[in-house]
Write a structure and sequence with these properties.
Distance between the termini: 43 Å
CATH class: Alpha Beta
Mean pLDDT: 91
CATH superfamily: NAD(P)-binding Rossmann-like Domain
Shape: globular
Strand order of the largest sheet: 3-2-1-4-5-6-7
Largest sheet: 7 strands, parallel
CATH topology: Rossmann fold
Number of helices: 8
Number of domains: 1
Helix content: 40-55%
Number of strands: 7
């Protein structure tokens, strides 16, 4: 039985991806901060699901990950789905630093732990859910867009490092657009997608071992033209939600 561990699976995209892999018959390890939601998920298939409470911002998160791996009997696919983000035009320091702590420091903590595990094991598939927000710096959400760019670049670097070290580790960087989750609490965002639909496309990309994927085709077009905008024009744009 194949084994997947998903960090950030108590709601939203991570929860929906975990549910799909449960239905596919995988042995699923789920982690997140909200223990009651993890326990509720485990009740769906107690013999198939293992849980562990993990907060990626805490220094013991790596130890908790290894406990979950032990419960699961190993790990073939690792998916990091945790993250926070807020519009912060007033640049409240606490919001910016909390975003960096989760999306950059916590991200690095968990991704390097998975990389070391797969290196020792000799193979594995390391996947993360980042965002198209990493394409350009967004004035309404500086820390969020910056940390998503960090995530994109970090996975690029790890993929190169694995190649340099001749390690058979597969990497997938999943970049959704606007998804109706706890991060986006209203329906005012354009091209808003349902997490169930996004999860199905993520599973398809993981099964095909895609190196990177933008979810969905409308955002592929958007990102293509987004990248073409010169800096002097981008800085003069007024972006709203």
């Amino acid at each position: 039985m194949k084994r997947i561990i998903i960090i950030g699976a108590t709601s939203g995209i991570g929860y929906e991806v975990a549910n799909i892999y449960r239905q596919l018959g995988w042995h699923v390890g789920v982690a997140g901060r909200r223990l009651e939601r993890l326990e509720a998920f485990k009740e769906q298939a107690p013999g198939q699901i293992e849980i562990q409470q993990i907060d990626v911002t805490q220094v013991d998160a790596v130890d908790q990950l290894h406990r979950l791996i032990e419960k699961l009997g190993g790990m073939d696919l690792f998916l990091l789905s945790t993250g926070i983000g807020s519009q912060n035009r007033t640049l409240l320091t606490d919001i910016e630093l909390a975003t960096v702590n989760t999306n950059a420091i916590g991200f690095t903590r968990m991704v390097t732990a998975a990389y070391h595990y797969f290196k020792e094991q000799g193979n594995g598939h390391l996947a993360v859910i980042s965002s198209i927000a990493g394409t350009k710096g967004l004035g309404i959400a500086p820390a969020y867009s910056a940390t998503k760019c960090f995530q994109n670049t970090y996975i690029d670097a790890l993929a190169q490092l694995a190649h340099m070290e001749k390690l058979p580790i597969t990497f997938t960087d999943i970049r959704p657009g606007f998804v109706k989750t706890d991060l986006l609490k209203n329906d005012k965002y354009p091209l808003l997608m349902r997490p169930e639909k996004v999860a199905r496309r993520i599973v398809r990309a993981l099964n095909h071992k895609k190196r990177s994927v933008v979810i969905d085709w409308r955002y592929v077009i958007l990102v293509f033209f987004w990248k073409l905008i010169p800096e002097y024009i981008w800085e003069r744009l007024s972006i709203h939600n």
